[in-house]
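Hi all, long-time lurker, first post. I run a small reading group and we've been trying to get comfortable going from sequence to structure in the token notation. Rather than ask abstract questions, I figured I'd post a concrete chain and ask someone more experienced to write out its structure so we can walk through it together at our next meeting. Sequence below, copied exactly:
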Amino acid sequence: MTMDKMKKKLGKIIIEKSFQYSENPPFTLASGKKSNYYFNCKTTTLDPEGMNLIGTIIFDMLKDTDITAAGGLTLGADPIANALSVISFQKRKPIKSFIVRKDIKDHGTKSVIEGNVSPGEKIAIIDDVITTGNSTITAIEQARKSGLNVQMVIALIDREEGGRENILQYVDEIKSILTRTEIMELRAKK
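-- Answer (accepted) --
Happy to help. Here is the structure in token form:
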């Protein structure tokens, strides 16, 4: 299956499992804004077919880079990073996954980054949905404080609400598998 066909298949899964729309804007986003559509991507990122497609598509984005690990703020990034890690191992170019904690534990090592990563490693920050970019920026800042070399950001969905522009103040490259426009176009074809 081509990458374009994989993206379209993933988009259909997102519409079926993770997308809600209402003319009356009942959804309150993490930013506090109201919206007439909502993406709860966990139902796609935790689905076996969804995980396989996401891992394969992101691996294709990273296979020609020197990035050795990918992760982001827990919980949204976790299944995406893990899917990528499994697919990358199967394709014989392992990319490790890691987790950025929202809050530092008050016991143990008190580490904000969990995973087998070391200072200086070239990494990608992953997020499921980008709206304002604030959670992605938090992950970038925490990774950098831990000595990781953030090369790029990859999002499952860019809601196209200014987050991309905000994130580009912190990294030179951001990619998204799908945008809100692409999802809406796929939805209209249903």
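A couple of things your group might point at:
Helices lie at 3-17, 42-45, 48-62, 78-90, 134-145, 163-167, 180-189.
The chain has a mean pLDDT of 94.
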